[in-house]
Write a structure and sequence with these properties.
This protein is of the alpha+beta class and 173 residues long. It contains 4 helices and 5 strands; from the N terminus they run E-H-H-H-H-E-E-E-E.
């Protein structure tokens, strides 16, 4: 478009309103089974993130909060671990803008949650989601159940979290 097509009100072509695009998640019909949705950018988890989340959720596990205690424990190089619930929450959160923003009716449940490797302060978490199935709701017209498998990986590509999630998603109006 040339500069002459813009009017002074910011519209295109003599006063028309500009096209607007609002970010949203996918409608039920847009989810494709066996498709991998990569969520970027990732999120680097800091010590402050871990301490805040751990204390907000009343999790007093010393491996998350006590550096002196963690230094005496075998298996993790003497480092504190990132709270696994923070890891899970973050991989789901990383998916929201791409998959469920404004289209999710409800989380129906989580299952098959696993944390194969730990996260440490300074690790960057990347997430991807596979749509593992979908079906129209029998009891709620205009909505459908979408099954999602979230996978979190650190900056080295190591899988640090996996969770199966069942969601209720709106169909396009």
């Amino acid at each position: 478009m040339s500069g002459s097509e813009l009017d002074h009100s910011g519209g295109v072509g003599g006063g028309d309103e500009p096209k607007k695009v609002t970010q949203r998640g996918l409608w039920f019909d847009e989810f494709e089974v066996d498709t991998v949705y990569e969520h970027r950018p990732g999120r680097t988890v800091t010590e402050a993130d871990n301490v805040l989340f751990t204390t907000l959720t009343m999790n007093s596990q010393a491996l998350h909060l006590d550096a002196a205690f963690a230094a005496t424990q075998p298996g993790f190089g003497g480092e504190r671990l990132v709270n696994s619930m923070l890891t899970l929450s973050t991989i789901v959160g990383l998916s929201v803008s791409q998959l469920t923003q404004g289209t999710l009716v409800a989380n129906l449940g989580f299952s098959e949650i696993a944390f194969p490797k730990p996260m440490f302060h300074g690790d960057t978490l990347y997430a991807e989601t596979v749509c593992t199935g979908k079906r129209e709701s029998k009891s709620r017209p205009g909505e459908g159940v979408v099954s999602l498998r979230h996978v979190g990986k650190n900056q080295h590509g190591d899988v640090v979290a996996i969770a199966q999630r069942s969601t209720l998603i709106r169909k396009e109006p």
